[in-house]
Amino acid sequence: MGRTTRRFRIVGKVQGVYFRDSTRAQAQRLGIAGYARNLPDGSVEVLAQGALQAVEELRRWLHHGPGSARVDGVAELLVEAELTIAGERAEGARPGVDAESKLASDPAVEAPPVPDSGPVFHVR
Question: From CA 21, how far away is CA 17, in angstroms rounded?
């Protein structure tokens, strides 16, 4: 199964209605890494990386969101690069060393342990 990275911009009544937290819950359930953040214009931006089928399911969910939201539209952009999302374990990384530390000039610098519970989805 292929992996994909997509960025979404959701417009409507999507701030102040638990849209980001609900998106995080959906993403974690689906094993998706990424983030959800409020934008100054009142919309929400979501970056999602994971299995193609899981990201498609999240995309469908974003079109309605939680019951307290009103989604007027969803714009989508396919991201053509594999991203390293902070907090997600890098392939070959040692426990306790995150992807940024792994790439640092001193790989012995320890970072807080990365949980083995799966991909990380941030709310900003």
Answer: 9
Structure pTM?
A: 0.70
Give the span between the Cα atoms of 47 and 76, in whole angstroms: 10
Rg, Å, the chain Cα set: 15
User: Which of 78, 74, 66, 79 has the alpha carbon at shortest distance from 9?
Assistant: 74
The residue among 83, 99, 53 whose CA lies nearest residue 114 is 99
- CA pair distance 54, 123, nearest whole angstrom: 19
- What positions carry a catalytic annotation? 20, 38
H/E element, 51 = strand 44-51
Tokens encoding 39: 């934008």
> 3-class SS at 86?
coil
Residue pLDDT, tens place only, 32-66: 999 999 999 999 999 999 999 999 999 999 999 99
How far is Cα 70 from Cα 42, in angstroms, rounded to an integer? Answer: 12
Bridge partners, 7 (sequence order): 47, 77
Q: Which domains does the chain possess?
A: 3-79 (3.30.70.100)
